[in-house]
Amino acid sequence: VTGMSFIGDVGLIPLVVNNQQLQTLCLAECNITDLSLDKIAKFLGPVLTCLDLSWCEEITDSGLSAVVSACLHLQQLSLRQCLSTAHTLVRLGENCQQLRSLMMSGVEGMSDGVLISLVENLALLEQLDVSWNLDLTDLSISRVLICCPRLRDARLAGLKRITSKPFLPIISDLARWRRCQSLLKLKEKERRVFLDEGEEHLSSDEEFEDLYIPHRSSSYAPCMHSLDLEYSDKVNDDHLAEIVAVCHGTLQIRDYYGEYIQPTWTGSMHFFM
């Protein structure tokens, strides 16, 4: 019944009461209240696996609290633009640990602390949307990428306070790669000087001990395939381009304008070619 704003409690409650084996309910934009959520919790709690309550403007935290207390086998949940409290969102993570997909863009009550508490209990999560939750920072996004190793799709649009920092560890041993980049820049300068002077210069093996071919981390966001950073002002596109290059086609990133980031190497990569 998604998008049917004329569907309210009177229409939905008999459906729930008389079909107690329902596993999926898509109620986005429906005109239901907490009364319907109470019935969903009572009659469908043990069997419900998929629930979409996005843009249901008449429901409150009380109804959501009933749902997260009873529907312990949820695998997909969408709460876009729903009213909630930090307490209920934390209980969601504690009670619904089988979640694979969680959509929470513009959810009232979302903060770094709440998101961290959520994802620390959601190791099976594969899809997450926390777009337009303006209080979120690098701290919670980093925890998401650490705590959810199966995460494939992260939608982080409109997060005005995040930077590139949470995403750089996707490059394995980043510190070693930065040292290698510094060495490559230095050797490139030396090469140009010797070319200009018409001299030949061969570097010793010891000078190249820090050479390192970067690769994607196998433990930090290892399954991430899609990352949406539209309207996230402080993220550095050069860093994103470097990450995409290192991932060799296994990760797609949308930039501020919704365009896919193109892979670009920084430093003098011709030493490896």
Please, could you describe this protein's structure?
The protein is an alpha/beta fold and 273 residues long. The protein has helices at residues 9-18, 34-44, 61-70, 86-95, 112-119, 138-147, 174-197, 237-247; strands at residues 24-26, 50-52, 76-78, 101-103, 127-129, 153-155, 226-228, 252-254. An eight-stranded parallel β-sheet has the order 1-2-3-4-5-6-7-8, with no helix packed on it. The longest helix has 24 residues, at 174-197. It is elongated, with a radius of gyration of 24 Å. The termini are far apart. The mean pLDDT is 90.
Please outline what is shown here.
With 273 residues, this protein is α/β, with parallel strands linked by helices. It has helices spanning 9-18, 34-44, 61-70, 86-95, 112-119, 138-147, 174-197, 237-247; strands at 24-26, 50-52, 76-78, 101-103, 127-129, 153-155, 226-228, 252-254.
Strand content: 5-15%
Number of strands: 8
Terminal CA distance = 56 Å
Helix/strand order, N-terminal first: HEHEHEHEHEHEHEHE
Number of helices: 8
Helix fraction by DSSP (H/I, runs of at least 4): 25-40%
Unreliable spans: none
Strand line-up across the major sheet:
1-2-3-4-5-6-7-8
Shape: elongated
The radius of gyration over CA amounts to: 24 Å
- Return the structural class: alpha/beta
- Overall mean pLDDT stands at 90
Largest sheet: 8 strands, parallel
Question: What's the topology here?
Answer:
Elements: H1 9-18, E1 24-26, H2 34-44, E2 50-52, H3 61-70, E3 76-78, H4 86-95, E4 101-103, H5 112-119, E5 127-129, H6 138-147, E6 153-155, H7 174-197, E7 226-228, H8 237-247, E8 252-254
Parallel strand pairs: 1-2, 2-3, 3-4, 4-5, 5-6, 6-7, 7-8
Helix pairs in contact: 1-2, 2-3, 3-4, 4-5, 5-6
